[in-house]
Amino acid sequence: MTNKKQAVISRIRSDIVDGLVIPGQKLPSIREQSQAFSCSLNTIISAYQELEREHLIYSRPKSGYYVVAQEALLPLLQKQRIDFTSAAPAPSSLSQTDFRQCLNKAMALFEDSIFTYPDPQGLLSLRQEMVQLFHKQQVFSSERQIFVFSGAQQALHLLNGMPFPNGKTNILVEQPTYWGMLESLKAQNQTVIGIERTPEGIDWTALERHFQSNMIKFFYTIPRFHNPLGTSYTPKEKQRIADLAQKYDVYIVEDDYLADFETDSKADPIWAYGGSSHVLYLRSFSKVMLPGLRLAAAAVPKTLVPSLQQHKRTADLSTSVLSQGVLEIFMQSGMYAHHAKRMRAMYGQRMRKLKEASSRLLPKAFLYSIPSSGGIFAAINLPGIHTEELAKRLSERGVDVLRADQQFLPTFPKPNLLRMSMMRTDEQEIEKGIQTIAEELDHAKLTDNDYTPSFWI
User: Fold this and answer.
1) Average model confidence (pLDDT) for the chain?
2) Strand-pair partners of 385
3) Which CATH entry fits the domain spanning 342-443: 3.90.1150.10, 3.10.50.40, 3.40.50.11810, 1.10.287.600?
4) Which residue from 19, 60, 131, 250 puts its CA 20 to 30 A from 257's CA?
């Protein structure tokens, strides 16, 4: 979404929510808005269409666009919140028309498969599409090594519980890391070891010691746009991980859940650094498309294929054919590449805004890991502050933030981190949200000796 179009949408949406234009009122014509915003007619048309998909306005043939009725607006007329917590795309991020077209076509093309139990490994035609997609990321494998899962969570859960060819049993995870991985390990009562990851990277001496001495079955890592830090490993660091994995016969589960949002064309996965014999490359489609599709895909070493086939079959017999069909058509039609490019640009702009606003409004000591661009996550460190109490104060002011405590193992030291997500905040909301955080922190530094804010430790 272009900056100008986003500005138009934000202004009109704010006018509606703030009551400056009322339900039933006719909006200015496309030509009038084009002149008012100094932009093209197509920009206004696209903005109106987006607002219509959000059910804020509707069109009357040969008449124009109008604000929807009061009843439909009630949820939106309530206090608007700034959401730094959600890791799911906004409903308006994907064209519902495009999705329905793909769904209808999938029902027609895969009608026979809907009435059977297809290959648990995934539709062959979709796996062939995945081969091409993975090749673009320098992950070279055949369709026989590709698995389609009911979401990345299913893939992680299966891998946590199944035996690996190295015969080892312990699992090493970065700290912090994706909370869903930790929950799966806990549910299966797996032996898990944590290794600290900071904005500066990882302790390589500790990593090699774990690989050498602690019977590590696999090391789970998020090399690109880490959750929750937002940071990425350098090419040298990826090469080092791949080398250590082969040296000590440790597998790497590489969670590349945001590969589509990469802005550096030379940023390759660990798999590309000679790690194909020991790296499982996992891709999710929940962030770039719809979480409800429940789709992920992985390229795995040949030695793991038979065991993973067995465990996948016993888990669900097969992943939803309709979901697989929708994704395949979305990819074949070119919609996927176009949509991913649009999302990459939008989130990149939001991350740049977050960095700029945070650098301007927050103390430097709090700027823990905020990428210059790319990804959807950043982390703010608040030493000496009760983040739970701060989160409550911010919530009262309409700003939702997420404490990162659940992304650590229970016994691992926890810094006071807030994970900041850009998925459901636009640039205006980011500015306002960071300003609100800054105000609450300034409020905590009042010089009145009779007042001690409750969220300072």
Assistant:
1) 90
2) 456
3) 3.90.1150.10
4) 250
